[in-house]
Amino acid sequence: MSEQVARRFIDALHKLERDRDLDAIVATFAENCDVGNVVSPRTFEGREGAREFWSVYRETLGEVESTFRNVIATDDRAALEWTTQGTASQGHNINYDGVSILEIDGDAITRFRAYFNPAELGHQIQEG
User: Fold this and answer.
1) Are 80 and 104 contacting, i.e. CB atoms less than 8 angstroms apart?
2) Could you report the per-residue pLDDT of 17-54, keeping only the tens digit for each?
3) What are the E-state strand segments in the chain?
4) 73 contact partners, CB below 8 Å, separation of at least 6
């Protein structure tokens, strides 16, 4: 089941990146989820928190596309290895790698964390 949820998440992320569709990605999360990454000191809680997290992600970037190299799934977890390429909202090119960990209950993500080099991404966004 977790691999199916991970694949749904990947499809929803592509919709967010391509079409700015927030609803599809928010729908992959449980009502009581918690969402975060290495950049934000804050944990985003619940579906509204997930909506805010992914909205900020999308607003930070211009054209963007994530490619997934590996999806590793167990019964209730998935690890996604990815590369994201595109432009920052100011037009600077970005290209960074990372890993996301999904904790899953049934058909929904209960916890999401993304790990990547924030200094590398920050430099690309600000300096180009």
Assistant:
1) no
2) 999 999 999 999 999 999 999 988 899 999 999 999 99
3) 29-37, 44-45, 61-73, 77-88, 93-105, 108-116
4) 2, 3, 6, 79
Whole-model pTM?
A: 0.92
Domains of the chain: 2-127 (3.10.450.50)
For residue 59, give the amino acid letter: E
Closest by CA to 64, choosing from 49, 82, 43, is: 82
Q: Are 44 and 109 in contact (CB under 8 A)?
A: no
Q: Which DSSP helix (H) or strand (E) runs through 41?
A: none
Quote the mean pLDDT of the chain. 92
d(CA 63, CA 30): 28
Instruction: Name residues whose C-beta falls within 8 Å of residue 32's C-beta, 6 or more positions apart in sequence.
Output: 45, 46, 110
| Number of residues that make up the chain | 128
